[in-house]
Amino acid sequence: MLLAAAFTLGPALFPQPRVPTVTRAALPAATSPVATTPVATTPQAPVYPTTASVTPLISGRVNLNSASLEQLEALPKVGPALAARIVAGRPYRSLADLDRVKGVGPAALKALGPLVSF
Question: I need a surface site. Which of 21, 61, 72, 88 has the fewest CB within 10 A?
Fold first, then answer.
């Protein structure tokens, strides 16, 4: 009887930590395409590498006026709520239009500038 109580109460009194197993695989670094003109007006969007198990959701620039919610959420600093607000605020003609969306501040504009088109 005491043995059964020890097996029953043991995990509650002395819990074992459960640590998830994390495996890491090195990916090739992202590369930027070389500009064909000597003076570029806007920075070029990065091209993300693909591997056998990883395919990027976006590559190049994302058009804010036609992108899906999933494509918007793949952008840095954009979560589900902000992606929904971006979709609701369409159409966009410039970064100034995007700046009017609640939740998009100077840091987000700086991060999104080279990744979006209109």
Answer: 21
